[in-house]
Amino acid sequence: MSIKDLSIKYRLDKCEKLHNYARFYDFFLSGRRKEEIKLLEIGIYMGDSLRMWNEYFPNNICILGVDTVDWECICKCDCHDYQFDRWTKVCKNQCEVKCPYGPVSKCLSTLGIKTEIGDASDTEFLDKLKDKYGPFD
C-alpha cells in the first residue's frame, strides 16, 4: 500500500482529504521502502501514524515515537470514518473501546514499535535518545 492508502486506512490527517501530505511522503520515501531504516516521529498521540510507518517500512530496524504524554489507548474497529469537513472521528457502531493494554506505549510495543516519553525541545532528552537508539534516517 502507498502512504496515501495507509493514511486513509489509519485515518490520518496526512490523507488527501485533509493536509494531503501523503503524496509528498510517497514521492520522497517510496524509493527507501525496502531499506532497513530507523524512523523517529515526534508527537504520536494515539500512535496511528506510527502504525502506518511500521507497515510502510516492513524492514525497519526501529520505529520510535516520542511524546510528552503516554495517552490511554483507544482501540478502533474498521467501521470508523472521518467527517472530514469537521475533523471529527465517527464510529458508525459506537464501538471505540478502551485498549486492553492500557497506555499507547504498551499497545504499540505489541507491534514492535518503541515509544519514549519526553520533551523533544529538551536537548538532553534528545541526546539520550541518540545514545540509546543511534542516529535516525
Overview features:
137 residues, alpha/beta, two-stranded antiparallel sheet, 5 helices, 30% helix, globular
Structural class: alpha/beta
Poorly predicted residue ranges: 82-88
How many helix segments?
A: 5
Give the oligomeric state. single chain
The major sheet is characterized as: 3 strands, parallel
- According to DSSP, the number of beta strands is 7
The dominant shape is globular
Mean pLDDT across all amino acids:
83
**C-alpha Rg (nearest Å):** 15 Å
Roughly what fraction of the amino acids lie in strands? 15-25%
Strand order of the largest sheet: 1-2-7
**Which bin fits the share of residues in helices?**
25-40%
How would you spell out the order of helices and strands? HHEHEEEEEHEH
Distance between the termini: 21 Å
Note down, in words, how this protein is organized.
The longest helix is centred in the C-terminal third of the chain and has 11 residues, at 123-133. The two termini are 21 Å apart. The model is unreliable at 82-88 (pLDDT under 50). The protein has helices at residues 3-9, 22-29, 48-56, 104-109, 123-133; strands spanning 38-42, 62-67, 72-75, 80-83, 88-91, 97-103, 114-117. Strand 4 and strand 5 (88-91) form a beta hairpin. It is built from 5 helices and 7 strands; from the N terminus they run ααβαβββββαβα. The protein is of the alpha/beta class.
